Amino acid sequence: MTDTLGPVHADLGPEQLRERIADELLAARARTAALTDCVDDRDLTAQHSPLMSPLVWDLAHIGNQEELWLLRNIGGRDPMHPEIDPLYDAFEHPRAERPSLPLLPPAEARAYAHEVRGRVIDLLGASPLEGSPLLAAGFAFGMIAQHEQQHDETMLITHQLRQGPAALVAPAPPAHLEQLPAEVLVPAGPFTMGTDTEPWALDNERPAHRVDLPAYWLDTAPVSNGAYQRFIADGGYQEQRWWSPQGWAHRQQAGLTAPLYWHHDGGEWLRRRFGTVEPVPAEEPVLHVSWYEAEAYARWAGRRLPTEQEWEKAARHDPATGRSRRYPWGDQPPAEHHANLDQRHLQPAPVGSYPEGQSPYGARQLIGDVWEWTASDFLPYPGFRAWPYREYSEVFFGPEYKVLRGGCFAVAPVACRGTFRNWDYPIRRQIFAGFRTARDAEPS
Fold first, then answer.
1. Are 89 and 116 members of one domain?
2. Hey, which end of the chain has fewer CB within 10 Å, N or C?
3. What is the mean pLDDT of residues 196-217?
4. Which pLDDT belongs to residue 2?
5. Is the pTM of the predicted complex or chain greater than 0.90?
6. Phi and psi, residue 246, nearest 5°
């Protein structure tokens, strides 16, 4: 039973690795441009929700982090504009305050990010990609590519919160509809959780460690809108018994009656999705629900949320070999037939889609479509070491945050793998989050 390094870096020479890094950086920047060029300057500088930054802040922050880590830390360059560093420090200014800051206007933010990127490409060509932990396997460059893609997902969330006509369009995802078992059995036994060998893994994914779990049943696919509507129709939001004390208090205070962006009209559930109002598709995974709502649904269904350990075993463990894969389907990077990723579509695929992406246990859509809430608090693994900076993970550890797994349709492959951990407050609903449920297996 061992951790594994897939083919992403294992056999790449220095020039091939440089090409892959450049491809990831260029892909991230193309997406950033698509998300910011589709709206005017007024939209870029507006704050569409106090939960989110203005889009122009994200744009310059992406460039600032790239300059800090690559040009200054790796390249030893002097700061280009040291006076703006405090403006784009995510810990110095809460999101609600950022519109009041003297931010770079859109044209200047674009020019700054563009100039940084040009210098970074020059630096990449001259870098040995070895000799220090930050350079080994191009880690620092990979970290920056992931950081930009994570902010692209954040900007897509802002687009969903934005009022007004649609600014983004994408084709619907392919549907693969077939009769599937409601749940799959994951037998008792150990597996390797986390990683020591994934070269661009972030600190909270490390180190690899053995976890031994009892047998459990896991939903074959995420909970659908249709199933969630039955919870609503059965009075799920009115019955206190399904909710934890904290969840019930929040439900009352926030006035929750359905997932975010849903409303009931003429006997039909409708939703707003990127500027378009449409009927809620019953076959899609439910989206924009908080951890408290997911927990209440699971209790109503006579089930529970899976732990983070249960989720990862179902997604990575191969019972035939005893090894942990990079993804449910194996070690090869995600292709379009494996998972709904990379903003190719602006919605989840119907439950049961992507049969070629299923895990050895038969669970589907563990990667892509919707982030999945788990029962677990965001905590460090045994032997955790903060690296390369405390503020990425360590300052967030604790019971205040719940772990989400698997990525969603808005996540890029570079920032999504079987070990990747996301986290957020249990009240959050603007994120692209859904869930699946689990139950204990009866002792044999």
1. yes
2. C
3. 98
4. 47
5. yes
6. -70, -40
